[in-house]
Amino acid sequence: MQQASNPLSKAHQKQHMKQAFLARARERKAADAAVENIPEVLRRFLPKLGERQVHLFPVALVCSLLLFMTGGLSSFMPLGEAISHAFIIGTYPAEEADVLAAERAYCEMEKELEDELDHYEARHPGCDEYNVKAQEIWHDPYAICAIISAYLGGEEWTIDSAYPVMERYFKLQYVLTEKITTETRYRTEQRVGQQLVTDPKTGAQRWESYTYEVEVPYTYRICDVKLENKKLSHQPVYSMSREKMGLYALYMSTLGNMPDLFAGKPHASQLKDPLLYDVPEEYKQADPQFGKLIEEAEKYLGFPYVWGGSSPDTSFDCSGFVSYVFTNSGVYNTGRLGATGLYGICQKITADEARPGDLIFFEGTMGEDVGGITHVGLYVGDNMMIHCGNPITYADLTRSYWQQHFYGFGRIPYDP
Fold first, then answer.
1. How far apart are CA 373 and CA 363, in angstroms?
2. pLDDT confidence tier of residue 368, bands split at 50, 70 and 90
3. Are residues 155 and 208 in the same domain?
């Protein structure tokens, strides 16, 4: 029988949840042992997962996200019940067969697009030259399943009801454009003419044929074909309400509670627990404003990366996370700025001058084709930062990856 619990305020629920899933994550128990610790109220829902592993941290994270989205559910709802609700909501509302069918259908759309590009000249005759420039065709299978589930409002779906959603997002992700230009060019052609020839011996004249060359103008048609992959995971921010964006974040945080379904797919997301780190207490005491930043930032450890996200309702991207932490901690109202915008309001400092509370910026983290500043994190001292990777986590700045992409430090002008 479920025990009654005292009413908790929304703030207390959030804090309790944070402490619960941070403690569990620190233990790092094996998956089998972790399942043994799941409350009985949650166990009844495990058959929905079959033989797949259940990770405690994502379950607790979904509950935390759900509390934000729903205003704390009910102040009278026991924590175990909140976890069970969150667990259910974090599961794709579809049978596994339909989830797999949706992925196959989206892959088939991509194959047809690839085939169209490979045979573009044969299927679109009439030009003298064809130039096809295409970005790589790929998608995260968990992203399309999360999009379907969120777009349909968390309602149960099948491959039939999902197909129109996939068609919509395929058109948003892949933009194929054709541009035909013309120019006047010249080609050499041979012509046949008649000339009067006189016989040198007899003086008789006759007409003879001869060939000659002329430069002839003609219209040369050039077909330039361009395929842009606007990244499937970027599309929810442009096409979904805040509520549905929140659902999308939930499904991405749990991978629909099917974390092994697309194992081995090259672009499939993986379920990751955040790296936990204890910021030295003396750093917080030396700068109370920095302490406020850390207190706010750690509330969202484990939240998934959602491009364009800027609040707990939608989850965050890197700059959305930093902007939200500074603004909602009361330290400094940055508004919603991108990474470049945050760098713009910073005082530029050297690595030797960096202190906890400064920002650290990176370049080249989104591929070679994206220039400028592409990532930002909050420096916490001792070569560590907290940032919105995937998920929000601490990171060791001595790793070669961060060293290679380092751009610079900046200091937002707040009073310590």
1. 5
2. confident
3. no
Environment class of 339 (CB within 10 Å of its CB; exposed 0-12, middle 13-18, buried 19+): buried
Residues 6+ apart with CB under 8 A from 33: none
Which residues make beta-bridge pairs with 252?
none
Q: Which domain holds residue 381?
A: 281-411
Long-range contacts of 18-26 (CB under 8 A, 24+ apart): 18/64, 18/298, 18/299, 18/301, 20/60, 20/79, 21/56, 21/57, 21/60, 21/61, 21/64, 21/302, 22/276, 22/301, 24/56, 24/57, 24/60, 25/56, 25/57, 25/273, 25/274, 25/276, 25/302, 26/276
Q: Do 127 and 231 have their domain in common?
A: yes
Euclidean distance between CA atoms 308 and 303, whole angstroms: 14
Quick: pLDDT tens for 259-270.
999 988 999 999
Residues 340 and 371 in one domain: yes
- Judge if 172 and 312 occupy the same domain: no
The reported pTM is: 0.75
Return the structure tokens found at 75.
């102040």
Tokens 């969202």 belong to residue: 300
The CATH number of the domain holding residue 391 is 3.90.1720.10
Alpha-carbon gap, residue 342 to 310, rounded angstroms: 14
| Token pair 């992959």: residue | 229
Domain count, the chain: 4
